[in-house]
């Protein structure tokens, strides 16, 4: 099963690093992909600098992948984060 999630951000964050992580809190989430990481794994991310959005695609999602996830932007002090609840049905 595949997953596609698009998160939008303010244009002022255009040059910031974006990330996708599993977990609901920035201190404890497991970063799965960043906009600087172009390695090929289960997750891919594209940063659309025209409409100010990131799209994360994950292949091979399983029911055990169900969890809170976060689209985040690295900022000084506290990151900007948007939580997404992912539920994978069998």
UniProtKB/TrEMBL annotation:
<dbReference type="InterPro" id="IPR013783">
    <property type="entry name" value="Ig-like_fold"/>
</dbReference>
<protein>
    <recommendedName>
        <fullName>Ig-like domain-containing protein</fullName>
    </recommendedName>
</protein>
<keyword id="KW-0812">Transmembrane</keyword>
<dbReference type="InterPro" id="IPR036179">
    <property type="entry name" value="Ig-like_dom_sf"/>
</dbReference>
<dbReference type="InterPro" id="IPR013106">
    <property type="entry name" value="Ig_V-set"/>
</dbReference>
<dbReference type="InterPro" id="IPR007110">
    <property type="entry name" value="Ig-like_dom"/>
</dbReference>
<keyword id="KW-0472">Membrane</keyword>
<dbReference type="Pfam" id="PF07686">
    <property type="entry name" value="V-set"/>
</dbReference>
<dbReference type="InterPro" id="IPR050671">
    <property type="entry name" value="CD300_family_receptors"/>
</dbReference>
<feature type="domain" description="Ig-like">
    <location>
        <begin position="1"/>
        <end position="87"/>
    </location>
</feature>
<dbReference type="GO" id="GO:0005886">
    <property type="term" value="C:plasma membrane"/>
</dbReference>
<dbReference type="GO" id="GO:0004888">
    <property type="term" value="F:transmembrane signaling receptor activity"/>
</dbReference>
């Amino acid at each position: 099963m595949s997953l596609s999630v698009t998160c939008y951000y303010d244009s002022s964050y255009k040059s910031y690093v974006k990330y996708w992580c599993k977990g609901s809190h920035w201190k404890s989430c497991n970063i799965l992909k960043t906009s600087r990481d172009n390695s090929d794994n289960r997750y891919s991310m594209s940063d659309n600098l025209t409409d100010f959005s990131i799209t994360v695609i994950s292949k091979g999602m399983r029911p055990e992948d169900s969890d809170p996830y976060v689209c985040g932007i690295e900022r000084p002090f506290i990151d900007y984060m948007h939580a997404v609840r992912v539920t994978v049905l069998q």
